Every structure is written in C-alpha cells, then in structure tokens.
Amino acid sequence: MEALNALISLADTMGSLRSLHHKIKERVFLYADDVAIFLKANRQDLVMLRTILEIFAGATGLRTNMTKCLISPIRCDLESTVTLLTNFPAKIEPFPIRYLGIPLGIRSLTKNDLQPLVDRVANRLPSWKAGLLTKAGRAVLIKSTLSAIPTHTALAINLSPWVIKCIDNCRRNFLWKGSKEAKGGHCLLAWPRVCRLPELGGLGIVDLQKFGYALRMRWLWLRRSDDLRPWLELPAEGERLVEAMFQASIYVELGDGKKALFWTDRWLQGQSLLDLAPCLCDAVGSRCKQQRTVADALLHDKWISDISGLSLCRSYWNICKPGIA
Q1: Residue 316 has what pLDDT?
Q2: Domain range list for the chain
Q3: Can you tell which superkingdom this protein's organism belongs to (predicted)?
Q4: Which residue of 18, 108, 208, 239 shows the fewest CB atoms closer than 10 Å?
Q5: 70 beta partners
C-alpha cells in the first residue's frame, strides 16, 4: 500500500491532481488494507485516480474491487455527483459513513447513527450464561466485554448522554440481575458508586463519560509529545471541556517556545495568561489562542496584534490621559 501512496503523492506533486484546501496537508490515509483518498469532484482527478489504480494493479497484481469502493460527496451539487458516477464506477454512500468501525459525518451524529453501538452492547449480553455466573463473575465480564465495545468509538466521538445511559442500563441490569431488565430493588449499590475504584469502595467498572474524556485527552497529549504522527497537520476542533481538563493537568517547560501556546499554556511559573489576565484574553480570538506559540508571540511583540479592539483602547487612553495628568 505504500507504493500506492507514493504514486498518488507523485501525481499530487506534479499537479496532476487539483490541490485541496490549504488546511488539508494529507490526501491519502492508509490503515491495513483500508484506503481513504480525498479528491476534488472533477473528471480530471477521477480519471487520474483510475489510471493510478491500474498502474498499481499492473505492478503488484492487486486489483481494486470497484463493487467495494465507496464515494462520499462532501457538499457536492447534483452535477458533480453525476460526474463522480460517470468517471468512477463506485457506490455513492452519503454521510455519515463508517470508517474503521466509527461513524463519521460532516454534521453532528443523530440518534439513528449511534443506535447500532447500543445494539451491539445489548446483543453481547450472554443471558443464557447468567445463571452460572456469580455477581463477581458478571462484573469481570462487564469489564472485559460490555465496557470494551464502546471504547473504540469513544476514542473519537463524544458519546451522547442517551447512549451512555442505554449502555449503563445494559451493564447495570446484567450485573445485578443477569438479564436485560432489572428493577431498582435488585440494585445493591448506586451506579456512580459501582464505577468507583475498588480502593474507594466501588467495583472498578469504568464510567463511560469520564473514560471518554480521558481517551480524547490522549490525542491532545500525542499532538504535543509526538512530532511523527501523520495526522498532526490536520485541523482539529476539540471539545472545550476536554481541552480545559488537559490544560489543568499539564504545565509547560519552555525550550525554544515553538510548541508552547502563548495564551493558554501554563508556561509562566505554572500559570497561563488565561489565568493571570482573563479579561485581556477575552479580547483575543479563539484562533489566535489555539495557534500562537510563545516563540512566535515574542518575535517583534506579535502577541499585541492578537488583541482585538486595541486601537479603540488607545484612543480612549489618549482622550483620558490629559485629565488624569
């Protein structure tokens, strides 16, 4: 598959493929035998892609099965969609789609998109074995199976409260009753206490909401600590709560200042400018907060230009200064 990636990259470099948005640094994403390719919806790019696939097949003997290929238009009109079908005989699959087992969409996922996840958890309940298991055995099975199923999805998606509630109902009912339904009288402990660590009086069953926060915080850590990740150049919009938890959990030791964020990182003796001057930071745009590094901000005092309304503040100061003097 690396050979295919090299062919597409060569075509991109030579200008045979139309360039994408400047924020999209990567065009091809490979995982095992799954390939995701981003192209412009025009005849030139589609014909070039088919040519590349034919060259790849002739050199390696690995031919593309068009019946298994999917095309997912992103904000394409009817004319562009017809062009896709005419020049690349694959199935049109509108968003949301599933990639590596995770539903992906260009808008917020609906209940119908996440219902299959709930069904997978419910269908894994081994009710016919429940009578042979003690509550301790059921707890082990919940940790190893029922709690593991949503983990892969929670890595990338903030699960809706109703999804977590449905999965928790399945886990709680199986723990106390061994079936899909259990009444309140069967529950010996409140569910929040069940999700505590054993040292704190719980059973160690994961809290899916908090566990999801921890999983997605890991992406922020990898973005800061590992420069070799191929997805680092992709634009990312994180959750505010997850970003706040991450910022509260780390502090930054300055080196050359090219990684530390000027406005939000805790690089000033364990504190951030957001903590020290919140009113000033309110006048800074969110994009500047997310992108301005310490090295860039201190170069020719660029951080001053991040503050909106600064010229107006100077005008007010010039008017008031004679009276103050």
Answers
A1: 45
A2: 2-94, 102-250, 251-325
A3: Eukaryota
A4: 108
A5: 91
